[in-house]
Amino acid sequence: MIDDKLIGRIKRGDESAAEELIHRWYSAILRYCRWHCPNDATAEDLTQEVFYKLLRSIHQYDEKRNFKAYLYTIARNLCIDESRRQPLYSLEEEAYQTDISEPIQQIEAKLDVASLLCILPSEQKDAVILRYGEQLSYKEIASVMGCNMRTAQSRV
Length: 156
What we know:
Elements lengths: L1 H10 L3 H22 L3 H17 L10 H19 L5 H7 L6 H16 L2 H12 L4 H8 L3 H7 L1
Helix pairs in contact: 1-2, 2-3, 2-4, 3-4, 4-8, 8-9
């Protein structure tokens, strides 16, 4: 409901509403992009691109749609496009880029999750990230991925 009000204000030219909407969703979209990107800089660039595309096309947004699903659809499509441009990287390289100050258990857990996600087909990987990483409902996942709710459930 808050998002719909902000979108209405943005459509009327209220720049502060655009800033508020970005502030409201920035960290969630950044976290989602980090799941798909080899480094934080690329994830940040993609996150900015998500909001650029959102604001550029905001007048075409239909308020009857679920905004959260709409926003994650933009993010997913950009992440897919980026993954096509990026060469695959190994998990061993990621281990060396990890902050030394993190407890060893957190590092091991991140590597376990990353390695398990890597073996999943991309549609299953996206579904799992959207469900457990971003806490989207099955209905929202179905909307983001362009499938029915049962398919989204089975992919998770």
